[in-house]
Amino acid sequence: MFSSIVASALLLSSTVLGAPLERRSPPGIPTTATAKSYLAALTVAAAGSQDGYSRDLFPTWITISGTCNTRETVLKRDGTDVVVNAACAATSGTWVSPYDGATWTAASDLDIDHLVPLSNAWKSGASAWTTAQRQTFANDLTNPQLLAVTDNVNESKSDSGPEDWKPPLSSYWCTYAKMWVKVKTVYDLTITSAEKTALTSMLDTC
């Protein structure tokens, strides 16, 4: 599965960087019905140990195409009228943060959020992965795992799961939950009982 994800990610990234951008949300968001099926099939288990966790075990950001790394690719994908310089840094554009609805015109006001936080992934199965597999997860452009969001909102989320943190914009809860269960399904990650309860509630807002 990981090799196919890498191949798809590279194909998507070349398309993103080489064509006019219309999409303002991550790829691969399932329908509500599919998301509920995914959630029902996920393995419920207690969170694993945080022992041994380090962000360095999830290498990011990697080069995607030319001089563009993962962060820059997501900024261009998620923004409108994004202009980049020779180093692929965004010099202008407009971004609407899906978590809070705030609009920004400076890339420095945005973080690229890992929807399923790296430490959450570690405690739900990624501790057993290879570094190459964790790199794929941390730079995934194929699934709805990376989003350009307001930096301080991302900081407030930190490594929390949906049982402890939800987007301030409640109208986004449905999409957030659908993306969360998709990512956990693709990577065969477990969920806690509290996490499942929160996701069920959020999917009920769809």
List the helices and strands and how they pair.
Elements: H1 2-18, H2 32-41, E1 63-65, E2 68-69, H3 70-78, E3 80-84, E4 90-96, E5 103-104, E6 110-114, H4 118-123, H5 131-138, E7 146-150, H6 151-157, H7 173-186, H8 193-203
Antiparallel strand pairs: 1-2, 3-4, 4-5, 6-7
Helix pairs in contact: 2-7, 2-8, 7-8
Protein described:
By secondary structure, the chain is of the alpha+beta class. Helix content is 40%, strand content 14%. It is built from 8 helices and 7 strands, in the order ααββαββββααβααα. Helix 2 crosses helix 7 (173-186). The two termini are 29 Å apart. The model is unreliable at 1-23 (pLDDT under 50).
Quantity of strands, as a count: 7
Instruction: Tell me the radius of gyration.
Output: 16 Å
N-to-C CA distance: 29 Å
β-strand amount: 5-15%
Give the fraction of residues assigned to helices. 25-40%
Strand order of the largest sheet: 3-4-5
Q: Note the main sheet.
A: 3 strands, antiparallel
Number of domains: 1
Shape: globular
**What structural class results from the helix and strand content?**
alpha+beta
Low-confidence stretches: 1-23
Indicate the mean pLDDT. 91
SSE ordering: HHEEHEEEEHHEHHH
Number of helices: 8
